[in-house]
Amino acid sequence: MHAFRSHKCNELNASNVGDTVRLSGWVHRVRDHGGILFIDLRDHYGITQILADEDSAAFKELEKVRSEWVIRIDGVVKARDPELVNPNLPTGEVEIFIRDMEVLGASEELPLPVFGEQDYPEETRLKYRFLDLRREGMHNRMMLRSNVVSSIRKRMEGIGFNEFQTPIITASSPEGARDFLVPSRMHPGRFYALPQAPQQFKQMMMVSGFDKYFQIAPCFRDEDPRADRSPTDFYQLDLEMSFVTQQDVFDTIEPVMIGVFEEFGGDKVVNPVIPQISYKDAALWYGSDKPDLRNPIKMQVVSEHFAGSGFKIFASLLEQDGTEVRAIPAPTGGSRKFCDRMNKFAQQEGLPGMGYIFWRVKTADAVAQELGIKVKEAQAMLKSGEVEGGMEAAGPLAKNIGPERTEAIRQQLGLNVGDAAFFLGGKPKSFESVAGRARNVIGTELGLTDQNSFEMCWVVDFPIFEKDEETGKIDFEHNPFSMPQGGMDALTGDPLKVLGYQYDLACNGYELISGAIRNHKLDVMYKAFGIAGYGKEEVEKRFGGMVKAFKFGAPPHGGCAAGIDRIVMLLADEENIREVIMFPMNQRAEDLMMEAPGEATNEQLRELGLRVIPQD
Question: Which segments within 407-520 are labelled E, that is strand?
Fold first, then answer.
């Protein structure tokens, strides 16, 4: 018999009754039933119940074991009594009567519980991550991650892509975040960098003639942490293709993404049709370039209804260039309590508040005022049906702009009795993001957002340039290596109107993919960087490898990168990315388990020619 096991802890069933077996694993749970000990033994694969009574030679030793000890047991498979069968376990028909037991690894008292899914301080969970990973939920999420990556690889290979590895130690390259620098021992005073992405390497592969590349690539960025982003490193499905249009990239990656979400998304519905939405429309309708389409609310411009109105705040705003008023429809949100709650939300987000209107059945007070009668008379007329109640608009805004304007707003937004609308005004960039977050909150609180689906969409037509409002300087708004729509001709007019062949794939409010058709023409690249204030010499200094490659015959090419961590986070129905990473950093970019970052020794610093300057 094998030194440690003849079977795994998920394999034994009624067909094994009478067999002598050997199992090894962790003591998951101990139950003492007065002279009979029951132990759930757990390994990577499952759980088997073992037992011993006072007649067993192993009973005395078994009494000493505690949770999370690692043991080996020998015993005989026995059938459970019919009423004791556990249908939730593959091994639920049997149990093992122990004849011999060996402790392979005793455990000290645990700093956090392994059995169950109790909430526990994240600091403790990360410090003892090896214990945290023993918990069923964490274990399942890591296996989900492994299976998702495996599925992606098979799918990419199945459509003709080849996987190649790119360097981990490379040159510093501005990609939109800070580099992690690596000092060189052999070249004192000079530094390598960990790659923020394989961007330049994969483009040079296309120049080298490799038609379809992909990689499950590690990327390193010294970023501020968020719940949906790791502060140090992450993995992405990185791919690039030659001789392709933007639509070719979409047609390639869509079946991969839809297939993965259908395979691992459980009961959630995956929309097989992925719409394409312009960046401009996404900002207007959803207040975000990563919209959550599970929420049906679309924001609209309603400036015309407030221009010259009695609501002076908006009326005055609209006299300034570049301003507008937008409405967030809120079907079923027509109560003062809900409206006040959303107004408070806006104040917590740093705005003075949000104006609102809600529509309700016309009150007796309103009928009395309208007909010039007493309220009691109005009540009687409403009750008898002599007068129809109809609806009325309520709220401070309704009083200020009057019934005609409020009715026009209601009709534009398609609202009715019991509904509401919220309003924000100014230059769109000053309030768009708050409006987007308010839209999400409204959709969730009113039960409008479908919690049982994955809704993907492409956001396209990103602007290449933006203008700094204070300095007036033109700079890149998004990826500087995107091909401008219209090529060189597009760069001769107003730079703020230039759109790029750049695209993102959003799902349920998260950006999952970012990509572009690349600018592979040096004259167009020099022109684009020149508009942003970067001379030819600076471009060649910063991106020398790519510039050299493009001088020797570069094909049209494009691609994208999909965030593995975020994909798994969505599939696992988690909101924190650290729940789907095996050994994550905390929010301060610290590895509490390995105690990193740490201090370098004086010998290490001398060898590298470095000196640490104490911080004040």
Answer: 420-426, 453-454, 456-460, 465-467, 474-476, 502-507, 510-517
Residue 48 in contact with residue 91, Cβ under 8 Å?
Answer: yes
Amino acid making up residue 148: V
Q: Within 13 Å, how many C-alpha atoms sit on residue 219's CB side?
A: 29
| Number of continuous H segments (helices) and E segments (strands) in the chain | 20, 24
Instruction: Indicate whether 22 pLDDT > 90.
Output: yes
First to last CA, the chain: 64
User: pTM (2 decimals)?
Assistant: 0.91
User: What are the residues whose beta carbons fall under 8 Å from the beta carbon of 242, sequence distance 6 or more?
Assistant: 206, 211, 212, 555, 556, 557
In sequence order, which residues have a C-beta less than 8 Å from that of residue 386 and are 6 or more positions away? 380
The structure tokens 């000079």 sit at 190
Q: Any idea how long the chain is?
A: 616
Express each pLDDT in 492-522 by its tens digit: 999 999 999 999 999 999 999 999 999 999 9
Residue type, 187: H
Helices (H), 112-198: 122-127, 129-132, 136-158
Residue 375 clears pLDDT 80, i.e. is over it: no
| CB-based contact 101:72 (threshold 8 Å) | yes
Do strands 47-53 and 162-163 pair parallel, antiparallel, or not at all (unpaired)? Answer: unpaired
Do the Cβ atoms of 70 and 25 come closer than 8 Å?
Answer: yes
Tell me how far apart the alpha carbons of residues 474 and 477 are, in angstroms, rounded to a whole number: 9
3-class secondary structure per residue, 246-289: HHHHHHHHHHHHHHHHHHHCCCCEECCCCCEEEHHHHHHHHCCC
Three-state DSSP at 96 gives strand
Q: What angle do CA 122, 125, 131 make, to 5 degrees?
A: 165
Could you say which DSSP state residue 347 is in?
A: H
Query: Closest Cα partner for 476 from 489, 487, 467?
Result: 467
Instruction: Provide the pLDDT confidence category of residue 117 given band limits of 50, 70 and 90.
Output: confident
484 cis-preceded (ω within 30 degrees of 0): no
Residue pair 14/79 in contact (Cβ under 8 Å)? The answer is yes
* Residue type present at position 170: T
Torsion angles phi and psi, residue 251, rounded to 5 = -65, -25
Evaluate the CA torsion angle 482, 483, 485, 490 in order and state its sign. Answer: positive
CA distance 32 to 557: 67
